[in-house]
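queue> pop job 88
queue> type: inverse folding (structure -> sequence)
queue> payload:
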């Protein structure tokens, strides 16, 4: 049998390759870059291994956790025993959102009721809005025509509540401000994670560099299942007969999965297979900026924290994962970062270093050893109203040609979980296709 060809070595392509390998099918994965991992990767800098950005997962991310069980080693990730987020402000007033030992969706009610960053009246309104959210169906097409911000405002959520509570999670999960975010994926986030089963929102973070987790480990897992990975192998076309053009060479396949970002997928997928391919460009893109600061000493003992009233959104301690043996390395993740994406490094340093000093007074006694910025201009598609209707399903009109990627219609936002689910869905369709078309 000819191998199944997978175009794209991000999480969608990796998940599909591992699943097909476990099914005993030959696989060749083509990746244009010299590494696997897609939007999640690492690079060396002054003796450290730096992730391009901070990526987290939740306990409810069952597909991604299942992939980790196949490619990762024990200790490669850390998952909270109980959802617990410290929320910091420059004024020194802090909050804490920690789930109680209660069944969902009541497990966060005590934390919201005691959330001191909001006034008591806003906390009560937030609890009422939470109940209303649980009654919404994220698959309802009508929700994709409404913004989350408009819905929250209509349910008594004043600007302060949106900034200090709701945006903590929706901006990070959807990579757009609440006033521009589609209500549909926001409801998916809240109903599945924060308002679902009690442990669903427990936060997981990588304990090793992403290049090791999604690169080295994934490469070994695919090879162990009989698959082949071809790096620096750019696919320029998918042709009739399920053939790829790779570096000018035509390679036949038994099935093809296009697991690239939507812009590349639109170029590769023939119009006859996907007449709506030109519509995919309407998904657009939303940027993420990551600010990296290395100090000569520790300035906080928190593994991570959320922040309000500051340009800082989320902070992660990357000291150990990056291999730093002295001092502390903090990464600041800024989603919906249109304001910062083109700002010079000097301007970002002038804004974010004083912001960190406000949050952590110990910073005043610490020396800044290094400061740098990583930018993901097209980190996710723009999850605004109408985007849901543009997301295609995995199957195309050509038997044997399938799509994968977090931008496809997975039922999830553009996340690592969505990417893995798309790869598994495409792999399932490939198996069904081959059972139908290939003699036993």
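queue> result:
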């Amino acid at each position: 049998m000819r191998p199944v060809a997978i175009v794209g070595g991000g999480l969608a392509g990796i998940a599909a390759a591992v699943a097909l390998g476990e099914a005993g099918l030959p696989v060749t994965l083509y990746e244009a870059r010299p590494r696997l991992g897609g939007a999640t990767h690492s690079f060396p800098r002054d003796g450290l291994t730096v992730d391009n950005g901070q990526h987290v997962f939740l306990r409810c991310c069952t597909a991604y956790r299942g992939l980790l069980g196949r490619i990762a080693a024990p200790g490669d990730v850390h998952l909270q025993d109980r959802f617990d987020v410290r929320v910091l402000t420059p004024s020194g007033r802090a909050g804490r959102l920690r789930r109680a030992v209660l069944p969902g969706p009541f497990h966060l009610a005590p934390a919201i009721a005691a959330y001191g960053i909001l006034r008591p009246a806003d906390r009560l309104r937030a609890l009422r809005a939470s109940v209303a959210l649980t009654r919404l169906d994220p698959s309802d097409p009508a929700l994709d025509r409404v913004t989350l911000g408009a819905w929250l405002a209509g349910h008594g959520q004043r600007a302060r509540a949106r900034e200090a509570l709701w945006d903590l999670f929706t901006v990070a999960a959807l990579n757009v401000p609440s006033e521009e975010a589609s209500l549909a994926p926001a409801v998916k986030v809240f109903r599945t994670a924060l308002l679902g089963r009690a442990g669903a929102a427990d936060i997981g973070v990588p304990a090793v560099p992403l290049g090791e987790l999604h690169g080295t480990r994934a490469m070994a897992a695919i090879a162990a299942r009989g698959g082949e990975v071809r790096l620096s192998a750019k696919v320029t076309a998918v042709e009739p007969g399920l053939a790829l053009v790779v570096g000018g060479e035509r390679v036949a396949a038994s099935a093809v999965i296009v697991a690239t970002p939507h812009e590349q997928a639109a170029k590769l997928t023939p119009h006859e297979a996907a007449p709506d391919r030109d519509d995919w460009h309407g998904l657009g893109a939303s940027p993420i900026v990551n600010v990296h600061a290395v100090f000569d000493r520790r300035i906080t003992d928190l593994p991570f924290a959320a922040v309000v009233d500051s340009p800082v959104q989320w902070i992660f301690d990357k000291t150990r994962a990056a291999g730093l043996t002295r001092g502390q390395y903090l990464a600041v993740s800024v989603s919906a970062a249109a304001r910062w994406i083109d700002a010079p490094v000097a301007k970002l340093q002038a804004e974010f270093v004083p912001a960190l000093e406000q949050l952590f007074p110990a910073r005043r006694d610490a020396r800044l050893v290094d400061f740098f910025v990583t930018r993901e201009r097209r980190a996710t598609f723009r999850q605004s109203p109408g985007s849901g209707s543009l997301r295609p399903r995995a199957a195309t009109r050509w038997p044997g040609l399938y799509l994968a990627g977090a931008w496809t219609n997975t039922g999830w936002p553009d996340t690592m979980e969505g990417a893995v689910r798309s790869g598994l869905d495409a792999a399932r369709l490939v198996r069904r296709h081959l059972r139908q078309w290939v003699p036993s």
